[in-house]
Structures are given as C-alpha cells and as structure tokens.
Write a structure and sequence with these properties.
Number of strands: 10
Low-confidence stretches: 4-21
Number of helices: 13
Bound molecules: iron/sulfur cluster
Mean pLDDT: 92
CATH superfamily of the largest domain: Aldolase class I
CATH topology of the largest domain: TIM Barrel
Number of domains: 2
Radius of gyration: 20 Å
Distance between the termini: 41 Å
Structural class: alpha/beta
CATH class of the largest domain: Alpha Beta
Strand order of the largest sheet: 1-2-3-4-5-6-7-8-9-10
Largest sheet: 10 strands, mixed
Order of helices and strands: HHHHHHEEEHEHEHHEHEHEHEE
Strand content: 5-15%
Helix content: 25-40%
Length: 358
C-alpha cells in the first residue's frame, strides 16, 4: 500500500534540495508578480489615468473589471510574462489573456461555473476521473498566472487536500483500482508545489505498481521558465513511472527567450512534452497566429497536442470563437504545416468518454 511519510515538511520546506538559492529563485520571482490590471497597463506605458489611454480603452471597448470580479479571481502576472508583451499595445495577445475586463461580470446563456463537469467527476477528495484508466489530482489551487479564460476559475479548491497527510485517502483509492494506469497532476498548477512536496507526492504515486505514467499539466515552463531547474528535471526523471509533460502556450510570442530554453531543456532531458492551447478571440483566432504558435513549438521539440474550443465557463464568453471558425482555421493550418504540427481541435463535453474531436 502506497503511503506518504509520517512526518511532513512544512508547506515550502525545501530541505534536501541541493541548490537552495536556485530553488527559491522562481518563488522569489513569483512574489514580485503584477497584481492589478491598472499596474499591468502602466507597465506597458498605458497609464489608465492619462486621457490618451482612456481614449484608447474606449475605442477598443475595454473597461477594466470591478472589485467584485477581482476579489473572486485576482490578477496575477509574472514579470517574465509581462516582458514578452509589446509596449503600448492594448491588443497584445499576451496582455489579452490576463487583463481583467468588466465583460467577466456578464451573465451569458450557456456559460456556467463548472462547464467541464469537474464536480460530477470527483471520485474522492483531490481526485477526479473522467476517462478510463486515468485520474486527475487537484494537486494545488495555486497558479503562477491567472488566465482570464480559466476553466477552473470557480473550482472549490478549499474542499481539496492541502496538507500532505490529507492525500492518503486519494492514494488508497488509486492503489485499490488496478485499472488506473496514468495519474495526471493538475490543479491549479502542480509545478507550484515545492520540489520536496512534489517529490513526496510523486514517490507515493510511483510506489503504486499499476501506475505506468505520471503526467503533469502545467503552464509554469511557459510563464515562469525559471521553474525548470536541474533539480526539477532530476526529480521528474527519477521515477519508475514514465513522466509526460503537457504545457500550455496559446501564442507564438510566448515562446521566446528563457521560455524557449526551458522547453528545450525539458525535451532534451527525454521527457515527452506536448502543448495544449485554447482558441481565444483576440489572442490566436487567425491562421497566422496558430501557425506561429505551432512552428514555435515544433522548433523546440514540443508537439502541438490539442487546440481546445473554449470551455463555456461563466465570465469567459468574450473569448469564444465559434466552432465553425475553429474548424476552418485548423483546415487552413493543415495546408501550411506538416501533419504532426497540427493540433487536434477538441472540446471537453461533460459525461463523454473522451475529448470530442470537432
Ligand atoms: S494556468 Fe491553467 S489552471 Fe491556472 S489560471 Fe491558467 S488556465 Fe487556469
């Protein structure tokens, strides 16, 4: 029976990690993130108090979100991600992913808090199962960035295990079901866990003989590339089970500088790395944008895996691109890129036994 140890380190204890300063590097960087829409604009030379910026916002039909929205889903943007945005450009595709808008308060028919049926799929605290053979761990509520289109922006994270010992029932559940061959670390973002916590949880999973693969769904290598350390690579490649990493980039402009390097480092360490993107209005809803994204990915060895139709989560309707347009974009993309570089256009429909190809 797999178990977590009797004594657990405190939340951010990094004892046992060989390079403490490197381990703390990404956490320190994270602490310096931008936490308001106004600050985000100011840092791009778009001071919301200036008449000129106000006119630009009005012309673009942009109104910043109110406090009610921000209390429920605050702004969080790492400096590293901000540095990849274009100064003075309100239409920047990276900015559009993280700028909180008043549109988020609109109630739109068909848009609901749990669009992907997470709550129905909850098998035991911390564990969701939607598809045969795979379970998903809500490993943490934390992310390094708050994407305004997030499909779990209303997820009841407070009900999930927090302390390591709280994970024991979830481990027992996985150990008792030999049909589970893959465990997916999700969240939130599982790479927000310190190396020591991540290692303890992964080792406990790795001790379950029928688990063949451990998959990590993460945006950190994209938005906070300093998270990809030598220690992390050693940790991920040190298990019996095969690690698989699924990252999340939506636009080619994300794949520059140290982000590119972090992805290459993961790929060259032998971990299969795939990308999932979301089709987002004003971000990547053109064939040129999707081509640049997919080329950027394959040029560092990351396979474009999925292009998701937006999950219809409350507050995200302004990001939706209609399915027919999505199909056309994929068809056009297929005429420009080799087959392996064209992602599958899919939608997650609650209750279906797999993602639905569109
Ligand atoms: S990184 Fe993923 S879970 Fe976190 S806010 Fe973005 S979409 Fe949501």
């Amino acid at each position: 029976m797999s178990s977590v140890p009797d004594a657990f380190p405190a939340n951010n204890d990094v004892s046992g990690v060989s390079s403490l300063s490197q381990q703390l590097g990404w956490q320190r960087e994270l602490a310096q993130s931008i936490r308001s829409g106004e600050e985000l604009l100011r840092r791009l030379g778009l001071n919301p108090d200036d008449l000129r910026t106000q006119q630009m916002l009005q012309t673009a039909g942009i109104q910043l979100a109110d406090q009610d929205i921000l209390r429920r889903f605050p702004v969080l943007v790492p400096e590293n991600f901000l540095a990849r945005m274009t100064h003075g450009d309100l239409g920047d595709p990276l900015l559009r992913q993280v700028l909180p808008l008043s549109d988020e308060s609109l109630a739109v028919d068909g848009f609901v808090p749990d669009a992907v049926g997470d709550l129905e799929a909850r098998r035991t605290p911390g564990v969701l199962q939607k598809y045969a053979g795979r379970v998903l761990l809500i490993a943490t509520s934390a992310c390094a960035i708050h994407c305004r289109y997030c499909f779990r922006r209303d997820y009841p994270y407070a009900e999930e295990p927090r302390r390591l010992q709280d994970w024991q029932p979830a481990l027992d559940e996985i150990a008792s079901d030999s049909s589970i061959t893959e465990v997916i670390f999700s969240g939130g973002d599982p790479l927000m866990l310190s190396d020591s916590r991540l290692q303890i949880l992964c080792l406990a999973i790795d001790q379950i003989p029928h688990v063949e693969r451990i998959r990590f769904h993460t945006r950190l290598p994209i938005v906070l590339p300093s998270r990809v350390t030598a220690e992390l690579i050693a940790l991920l490649t040190g298990f019996r089970a095969q690690p698989i990493m699924v990252v999340h980039a939506n636009h080619g402009n994300e794949l520059v500088g140290d982000c590119k390097y972090a992805l290459q480092t993961l790929v060259r360490s032998g971990i299969p790395v795939l990308n999932q993107a979301v089709l987002l209005a004003g971000v990547n809803d053109s064939v040129e944008a999707l081509e640049a994204l997919c080329r950027g990915l394959i040029n560092v060895g990351v396979m474009p895996y999925y292009l998701h139709q937006l999950d219809r989560v409350s507050g995200t309707a302004h990001f939706e691109v209609n399915r027919e347009r999505g199909r056309q974009l994929i068809q056009q993309l297929a005429t420009r890129l080799p087959g392996y570089a064209v992602p599958r256009f899919v939608q997650e429909i609650p209750g279906e036994p797999n993602k639905t190809a569109l």
